[in-house]
């Protein structure tokens, strides 16, 4: 089911659990890959929600790197992380505000052979999109080309297409935790903004941020 853009006018904390079970499709010259989303994290920007999010890329305002987060909802914010891998977010909230849902993990359901070719290091199919960098790599998304792409375009052959799950995931099927690997208070129970499908093999392992060195 293709959502209307108005669906994403809510902030990322509201949207992140609703994207569990959704499908994100990439259509690139080498082929099409679809991932069923099994793990998400929410990040909010200045003026979104009742408190500041110290873990968000947009916490200090708009920059060249995070400009897509401040744009129209339903677009992708793709960034390069730690000089190693790309990560894919879905932009939420009205334009001018900045919140986004990080797609942390998923199950490849079409285009498995292409995803395997892109993810040569994966020994099992469950690991093809198990983590945000792996998910972006399996889909073929990179910042230079795909940051700001509209996932709700709906045109035939659109580079990205986001479809909601056919049914809402129930609370019993969903796990909630602090965000993984986020430093400081932003990665604690003060921000329980990681959502995942329980008993799902493709969900990435939870990892607390390393404590700061003295």
How would you sum up this structure, described in words?
With 214 residues, this protein is α+β, with helices and mostly antiparallel strands. It has one domain (5-197): 3-methyladenine DNA Glycosylase, Chain A. The protein contains four helices and eight strands; from the N terminus they run H-E-E-E-E-E-H-H-H-E-E-E. A hairpin with a 2-residue loop joins strand 1 and strand 2 (31-43). The model has no long low-confidence stretch (mean pLDDT 93).
Distance between the termini: 50 Å
Number of strands: 8
In angstroms, what is the radius of gyration?
A: 16 Å
What is the correct CATH architecture?
Roll
Helix content: 10-25%
What's the order of the H and E elements? HEEEEEHHHEEE
Task: State the domain count.
Answer: 1
CATH class wording: Alpha Beta
What fraction of the residues are assigned to beta strands by DSSP? 25-35%
Instruction: Choose one word for the global shape.
Output: globular
CATH superfamily: Methylpurine-DNA glycosylase (MPG)
Say what oligomer this is. single chain
Largest sheet: 8 strands, antiparallel
Question: What number is the mean pLDDT?
Answer: 93
What is the fold-level CATH name, i.e. the topology?
3-methyladenine DNA Glycosylase, Chain A
Structural class assignment:
alpha+beta
Number of helical runs?
4
| Residue windows where pLDDT falls under 50 for at least 5 positions | none
């Amino acid at each position: 089911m293709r959502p209307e853009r108005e669906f994403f006018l809510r902030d990322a904390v509201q949207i992140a659990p609703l994207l569990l079970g959704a499908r994100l499709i990439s259509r690139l010259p080498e082929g099409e890959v679809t991932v069923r989303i099994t793990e998400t994290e929410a990040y909010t920007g200045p003026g979104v929600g009742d408190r500041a999010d110290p873990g968000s890329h947009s916490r200090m305002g708009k920059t060249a790197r995070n400009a897509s987060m401040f744009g129209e909802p339903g677009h992708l914010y793709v960034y390069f992380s730690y000089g190693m891998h790309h990560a894919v977010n879905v932009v939420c909230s009205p334009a001018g505000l900045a919140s986004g849902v990080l797609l942390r993990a998923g199950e490849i359901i079409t285009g498995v052979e292409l995803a395997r070719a892109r993810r040569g290091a994966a020994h099992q199919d469950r690991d093809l999109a198990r983590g945000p960098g792996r998910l972006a790599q399996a889909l073929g998304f990179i910042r230079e080309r795909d940051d700001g792409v509209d996932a709700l375009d709906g045109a035939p052959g659109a580079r990205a297409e986001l479809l909601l799950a056919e049914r809402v995931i129930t609370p019993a099927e969903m796990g909630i935790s602090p965000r993984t690997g986020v430093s400081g208070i932003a990665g604690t129970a003060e921000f329980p903004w990681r959502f995942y499908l329980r008993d799902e093999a493709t969900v990435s392992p939870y990892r607390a941020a390393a404590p700061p060195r003295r």
